[in-house]
Specification:
It is built from five helices and twelve strands. The chain has about 325 residues and is an alpha+beta fold. Helix 3 runs antiparallel to helix 4. The chain has two domains: about 80 residues; about 150 residues, Sandwich (Immunoglobulin-like).
Length: about 325
């Protein structure tokens, strides 16, 4: 009995030391992670937008679960290969095991639970990410038009007294830089890229529209994109939480110069945002560039043009 008790004590001590060692190693590894690593190697940093954090957290936690399952499966494969390997002087096939109902049920139930869990968390986070602010909640309301191959931004008026609106910005396609001989250098002039300004900490709602073909409004650092479809308006709302300049691009193949359909998002202070809006007003960009500038004027719902034929024919 004493020998058995001593053996159990030793085993408990080993378990404690093993758990402590693993915990220390894990804490050391996590402490050495950079912000990008903790963000799952996704572009941008935590705290850029509220939507981005939701998506990044889902991404990181999904990989943690999947890696844990992967290590379990790899461990079982290695264990089975070691334990059930053919020994010396053994011939023939090893003992076969068929119709093991508990294992077969386990292999069916676990994947169903995993898929159901991922579906539930995806639906939950997607519902939050796609929730659009009401008119009362929206502080900055921007209408974005995708066009071959640039962007137009209409800063519309809202009920918020803090932020101004009623002006527009007309963007141009990315301009390539050239050398002294006139050959392109492969670089673009960032100073001429379309620029979308939003104030940090504000409730921003964006309407996405297209003037011609399908485009896609994508800011990688925001971890969110949405299509602009001719004849349709898509919406999304977010709160920019970190000041800075973020590159955006079209993520839908839309023609010859699709790769040049770039823009910048400037997240600035409220004062700088209001000053920018005032600069557009002083430049004469009052009002909005609406659907009248669309290239497609015969979308579903519009009247069909009637061709008058000569009565003699």
């Amino acid at each position: 009995m004493r020998l058995l008790e001593r053996s159990n004590v030793r085993k408990n001590h080993r378990k404690k030391w093993t758990a402590l060692s693993l915990g220390s190693v894990l804490a050391l590894v996590l402490a050495g992670c950079t912000a990008q690593e903790l963000n799952g190697y996704m572009p941008g940093l935590p705290g850029t937008t509220d939507i981005g954090d939701i998506i990044a957290n889902f991404w990181v936690h999904s990989w943690i679960v999947l890696l844990a399952i992967g290590f379990l499966v790899w461990g079982l494969l290695i264990w089975a290969n070691v334990v059930y390997r053919r020994r010396k002087n053994e011939t023939g096939m090893p003992v076969q095991m068929r119709y093991h109902m508990p294992i077969e049920i386990l292999f069916t139930v676990i994947p169903v639970i995993l898929v159901g869990g991922f579906f539930a968390f995806t639906a939950r986070d997607q519902a939050v990410a796609q929730e659009v602010y009401s008119e009362e909640e929206t502080e900055v309301y921007i209408e974005v038009y995708g066009k071959q191959w640039a962007w137009d931004f209409n800063y519309l008026e809202t009920g918020s007294a803090e932020y101004d609106g009623g002006v527009y910005y007309e963007g141009v396609q990315a301009v390539e830089l050239t050398d002294e001989e006139g050959a392109t250098t492969g670089e673009i002039d960032h100073g001429q890229l379309p620029k979308l300004y939003v104030p940090v900490g504000a409730n921003v709602t964006i309407d996405l529209k297209s003037r011609d073909v399908a485009h896609s409004f994508w800011v990688p650092d925001f971890h969110y994109k949405q299509d602009t479809i001719p004849g349709q308006t898509n919406q999304f709302s977010f709160v920019p939480e970190r000041e800075g300049v973020y590159m955006g691009k079209c993520a839908e193949l839309c023609g010859e110069y699709h790769s040049m359909m770039l823009f910048e998002v400037h997240v600035v202070s409220q004062e700088e945002y209001n000053a920018y809006i005032e600069s557009l007003r002083e430049a004469g960009n009052e009002g909005a560039l609406g659907d009248e500038y669309n290239r497609n004027q015969h979308n579903p719902g519009d009247s069909v043009p009637v061709i008058e034929h000569d009565e003699q024919h």
